[in-house]
């Protein structure tokens, strides 16, 4: 992935406010050519010591994608006041932007 595209993804993710979420696809649309899959890859390969709110990025179904850090991601979102419905979806009202 081009360095400038990766920088665009990280810049958008850094702007997601506390208590809000967005999707891989929404982030991709805010860049100059990234796809949702590329955003997911960028989130998986964050450098050690980063402070990006990666946990605020979820899939288009408004669910946390099933991965090794999913339990931690849900816990971080809950700590910010994000609630999940009975099937694990986040309410649309939490979407940013």
TrEMBL record:
Transmembrane segments: none annotated. Gene3D superfamilies: Winged helix-like DNA-binding domain superfamily/Winged helix DNA-binding domain. Pfam families: DNA_binding_1. Keywords: DNA damage, Methyltransferase, Transferase. GO terms for molecular function: methyltransferase activity. One of its GO terms (biological process) is methylation. Residues 7-82 form the Methylated-DNA-[protein]-cysteine S-methyltransferase DNA binding domain. This is Cysteine methyltransferase. It comes from Cobetia crustatorum. The lineage of its organism: Bacteria, Pseudomonadati, Pseudomonadota, Gammaproteobacteria, Oceanospirillales.
């Amino acid at each position: 992935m081009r360095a400038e595209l990766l920088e665009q993804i990280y810049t958008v993710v850094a702007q997601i406010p506390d208590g809000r979420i967005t999707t891989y696809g929404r982030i991709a649309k805010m860049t100059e050519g990234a796809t949702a899959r590329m955003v997911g890859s960028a989130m998986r390969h964050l450098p050690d010591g980063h402070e990006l709110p990666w946990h605020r990025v979820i899939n288009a179904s408004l669910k946390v994608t099933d991965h090794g850090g999913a339990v931690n991601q849900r816990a971080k979102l809950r700590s910010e006041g994000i609630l999940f419905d009975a099937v694990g979806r986040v309410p649309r009202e939490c979407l940013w932007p």
